[in-house]
């Protein structure tokens, strides 16, 4: 199997342009807002910042009024290429990259695993339900769809009330026990698993219905295709027809949705992290917005945007591998 050069080149050009546009918007957006990070920081300090310190802060954050917007833009790119995302006002002027890095593993571990489990379980279940259309398995669709329509914060609060307060099976909040510090030990890993189980299960239950319904509907469309009839007429085993022919083609639209879900994993689930007081990127973004910490907001928006782009690149490659028509059309 060969993927045409024109297909690869067109994708590379498109995503490079998209990345440039996202970074450029990320540069201009704070400068279009009322005020700026340095002014907001000075207001919090209540006059304790001298004019010399203010000038130094403006240079540090690339907001030097003595330089033109074009010069600031070039310096912004230079800082990005050196991996410098600025300093966070709400975290004692700590590097934004370090602040994000402290929250990113929690979000990737929790939301990432829950998303992959939900997609895999939902796609496989939807394929089986679609294959056995008209059977008792169809009852799964309205049940899971109902849970998907329940507002997430209600689902989270109900889960905490039932499984934490009444049954006492899971901790109600935080990523690990109070008084503990992150360390690579079996006890700490056990705490992380116990604290992450309930929010992870809640995410899976809330998103499962969409994957099941989407895959089932695509399976119903694919099963009417001629190649499925031919495969069955040849006497191929039902399992092979289901997974090698029907499900493989039916899941193609699922990949696009999964790519977006994977990309937004980095952004976390803000409502979930608020309900469970989980120290992820979503809660950090909310805290940064509340504190008007523009550098941290910029860094988070940039990381989320790049994650979505990378996820879409992976989806395009997978799409081209699974469906030759895609790369032929692009070529």
TrEMBL record:
Belongs to the binding-protein-dependent transport system permease family. Pfam families: BPD_transp_1 (PF00528). It comes from the Bacteria. It is a multi-pass membrane protein. GO terms for cellular component: plasma membrane. The keyword Zinc does not apply. SUPFAM superfamilies: MetI-like. Keywords: Membrane, Transmembrane, Transmembrane helix, Transport. GO terms for biological process: transmembrane transport. Residues 104-315 form the ABC transmembrane type-1 domain. It comes from Homoserinimonas aerilata. It is found in: Cell membrane; Membrane. The chain crosses the membrane at residues 12-29, 106-131, 152-172, 192-213, 258-279, 299-322. The keyword Transport applies. This is Peptide/nickel transport system permease protein. Its main location: membrane.
């Amino acid at each position: 199997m060969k993927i045409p050069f024109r297909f690869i080149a067109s994708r590379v050009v498109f995503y490079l342009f998209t990345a440039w546009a996202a970074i450029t918007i990320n540069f201009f957006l704070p400068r279009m807002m009322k005020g700026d990070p340095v002014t907001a920081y000075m207001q919090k300090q209540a006059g304790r910042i001298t004019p010399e310190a203010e000038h130094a802060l403006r240079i540090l954050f690339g907001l030097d009024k003595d330089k033109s917007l074009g010069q600031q833009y070039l310096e912004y790119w230079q800082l990005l290429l050196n991996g410098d995302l600025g300093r966070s006002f709400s975290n004692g002027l700590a590097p934004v990259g370090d602040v994000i890095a402290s929250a990113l593993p929690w979000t990737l571990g929790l939301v990432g695993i829950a998303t992959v489990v939900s997609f895999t379980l939902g796609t496989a279940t939807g394929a089986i339900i679609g294959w056995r259309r008209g059977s008792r398995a169809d009852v799964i669709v309205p049940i899971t769809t109902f849970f998907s329509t329940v507002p997430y914060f209600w689902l989270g609060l109900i889960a905490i009330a039932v499984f934490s307060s009444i049954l006492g099976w899971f901790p109600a909040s935080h990523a690990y026990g109070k008084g503990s510090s992150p360390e690579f030990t079996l006890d700490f890993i056990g705490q992380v698993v116990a604290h992450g189980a309930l929010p992870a299960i809640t995410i899976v239950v809330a998103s499962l219905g969409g994957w099941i319904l989407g895959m089932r509907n695509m399976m119903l469309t694919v099963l009417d295709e001629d190649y499925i009839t031919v495969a069955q007429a040849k006497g191929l085993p039902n399992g092979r027809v289901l997974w090698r022919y029907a499900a493989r083609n039916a899941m193609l639209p699922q990949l696009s949705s999964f790519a977006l879900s994977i990309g937004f994993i980095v952004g976390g689930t803000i409502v979930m992290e608020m309900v469970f007081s989980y120290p992820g990127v979503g809660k950090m973004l909310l805290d940064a917005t509340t504190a008007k910490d523009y550098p941290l907001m910029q860094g988070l928006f940039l990381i989320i945007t790049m994650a979505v782009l990378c996820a879409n690149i992976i989806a395009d490659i997978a799409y081209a591998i699974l469906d030759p028509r895609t790369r032929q059309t692009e070529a």
